[in-house]
Amino acid sequence: MSPELCFYNDDVDNIREAEYPMLKGATYLDHSGTTLYAKSLVQKFATSMITDLYGNPHSGSSSSILATKRIDDVRLRALQFVKADPEEFDLVFVSNATAAIKLVAEGFRAENGFHYAYHRDSHTSLVGVRELATTNQCYGSDEMVEQWLSQVDQNGTDETPSLFAYPAQSNMNGRRLPLKWSAQVRGSKKNTFTLLDAAAFVSTAQLDLSNSEDAPDFTALSFYKIFGFPDLGALVVKKSSAHMLTRRKYFAGGTVEMVSCLQDNWHAAKDQSIHEQLEDGTLPFHNIMALDSAFEVHKNLYGSMEKISKHTAYLAEKLYQGLSSLRHQDGQRVCKIYTENEGNYHDGLRQGPVVAFNIRNADGKWVSNAEVDKLASIRNIHLRTGNLCNPGGISYHLKLKTSEMKANYAAGQRCGNDHEGAFGKPTGVVRVSLGAMSNMEDVTTFIDFIREFYIEQPTDKEEITQKPSRSGLYVESLIVYPIKSCAGWTVPPNIAWEVKEEGLAWDREWCLVHTGTGQALSQKRYPRMALIRPEIDLRAGLLRIRFHEPRKVDTAKEISVSLTEELQSSTTRDSRVCEERVRAFPCKSQHITDFFTSALGVPCNLARFPAGGSGSTSRHSKAHLQQHQLPRKRRLEDDTGSFSTPPPSPPSSDQEIISRPILLSNESPILCINRASLDFLNTQIHQRNGKAASAAVFRANIIVAASDPASSVPYVEDSWKNLRIGKEIFEMLGSCRRCSMVCVDQETAEKNEEPFVTLAKTRRFDNKVFFGEHMCHASNGGSRKAFIKVGDVVEAFVREF
Ligand SMILES: *Cc1c(COP(=O)(O)O)cnc(C)c1O
């Protein structure tokens, strides 16, 4: 690295450590917003807010005049930032790049419509303009654009204006598109205007509009992508083309001089400057002041955009080289990188500092993005996955046909969910973006991360050779989780506990729902739920709940609710558990609501979901046998290099998904873990110097252990078909898929990276990480109540292979 760059890397490190406690040790690779939220920026802004008084810029008070004056200065500064001459250009403040794009579309649609053409690499916000156009066309490649540009059409008779839009940089893979197109359009086409989406480009490149002849007519950008703060965007308008925008019909406070309403519809628009005619309502004037601080701090810290560009191009090349050199044992590449610019990462002309890719595992199968996301977040690596709001780029690079996208949509794929899609193709990518604050360590951390998790080491999956024995097992403990995602309550050893169709009695019968959204809360987002400790007091007929804050003298905050209260069906409220709509009974006591709200710091309500409901007051299990639990020859083979998704319909009767009623548990009535597997896992964690996992993190209902530890076999539960516990028979429903929630320490609510990291290396099958088994009580037709207790003998019946 050149010394010049090293210097400011040190600076960046200092900022990262000292000024962003949140980013301490983080690898920040999602610069879709270059989150340079430097304390110095906020401080500078705060100082200016405290020193000066700014008023709404519409009146004659000194505070108002001060705001107006400063806005003019910042507007000029923003123009200068993109080297635009204020004689030739005006700048309209908007909330983001999307708003800038909409403002252009609004102008073009005002009279008799317009023709619209856009490039394949466009962001969704640019694609959406087509819905307002009379005709529209998507150019699928640069060649198609060049071809269109080569047809000189200066004397055409078409009076309808045309708008050609494209991104300066693809937000999907960072490819930079030719900036010369704007000049070429002007040279070859009559009545045709250009809209450049510079939102992704400007965070790591110098946008240069100094040659106004060649500049786009309209340029959209978001400042938060450059500075992190403030949330503000701009439309830079070439004055000679501004008439296309000021002809829009709408007017607002701020854009008119006078309006009459009562006798006729008359108004006089402002006509002094372009921005006055286009800035609707009160300007976000505090944001505009903050932008001034951002220009200042950014410049002091990083020097110039040219410097950032050099720095990020250098890092991007290293990142690209590192990722493309990773190989599996058989020599196959680990990362499929989506770029048309191999080897051009260094020059910054054709390629921005972004690498978009997918990973294949040692079998050549695609790794799901959601899985990468989970592991990355455990390692405090910030990146982005999915289709990134770039529909054309994604379908081009992943070779997704519209029919396939529609089928994936019908099967449940949505923006932001982790649906893998069918057709053996990925539906999204992993994107890592470098920005001003990235450094070489971020790059190596990330390459090491991919190597660590996606190149299989021979030592990772230890073969277990012991023969399972059928008996010698017993129930070590029974645990009930009355409130979904809160702490478990251990059933005392001498009590026979009832087992129902839905699971252990009182298990997951309550949940906490967000007061605003109705969404059931989970430890994944609210780890402090682990500190809420419910307790079942059958004698008093109460569910007692205590909130236990670690390292605080227990002030024994406790509330209780009745276990037996009558619930009236008229009082249910719509809620959501995971992505499922349910109707639950909210608890009406303000006292109880306050208890949970203050414990978690989230507005939430206790709600009950009793057994025996129907329709949206009932739920069913989704657990099923997983591929790794099937005999090898029966595993679904597919040679398309695809995901090995579970079959949509079970191939044989013994693989049927047994649909059982459940309450608020995620997937099945009962979850069981084997002590031997936990001990084995902890040995492996210990070898990696990690923090051992307690049984509590797996949130099992039944822990089974071997009476003679010498005969215990880890992961034997994968092959169990049935268990007899005491007198009761249970059916095994399949392995339990795990997420990072197992990393929440149930005593302190702190997050660790174990046991997920070790599980991801040792218990990952078909892209998913498993630990523990789902099960349910085998129905006895409701003829009698079933009970089990701690110490009961457990007999395992193994699936036939
Ligand atoms: C981020 C981005 C947008 C959208 O920006 P907003 O600030 O969300 O309006 C549009 N185009 C590109 C290329 C982007 O990167």
From TrEMBL:
Ranges of residues in domain MOSC: 645-797
Region (Disordered): 611-656
Molecular functions (GO terms): lyase activity; molybdenum cofactor sulfurtransferase activity; molybdenum ion binding; pyridoxal phosphate binding
Record: active site: C389
InterPro entries: Aminotrans_V_dom, MoCF_Sase_C, MoCo_sulfurase, MOCOS_middle, PyrdxlP-dep_Trfase, PyrdxlP-dep_Trfase_major, PyrdxlP-dep_Trfase_small
Keyword Nucleotidyltransferase: no
Cytoplasm found in the keyword field: no
UniProt KW keywords: Molybdenum cofactor biosynthesis, Pyridoxal phosphate, Transferase
Catalytic activity: Mo-molybdopterin + L-cysteine + AH2 = thio-Mo-molybdopterin + L-alanine + A + H2O
EC number: 2.8.1.9
SUPFAM superfamilies with a match to the protein in the record: MOSC N-terminal domain-like, PLP-dependent transferases
Protein family per UniProt: Belongs to the class-V pyridoxal-phosphate-dependent aminotransferase family. MOCOS subfamily.
Functional note: Sulfurates the molybdenum cofactor. Sulfation of molybdenum is essential for xanthine dehydrogenase (XDH) and aldehyde oxidase (ADO) enzymes in which molybdenum cofactor is liganded by 1 oxygen and 1 sulfur atom in active form.
Alphabetical list of PANTHER family matching this protein: MOLYBDENUM COFACTOR SULFURASE, MOLYBDOPTERIN COFACTOR SULFURASE MOSC
Name listed for the protein in its UniProt record: Molybdenum cofactor sulfurase
Source organism of the structure: Coleophoma cylindrospora
Phylogenetic lineage: Eukaryota, Fungi, Dikarya, Ascomycota, Pezizomycotina
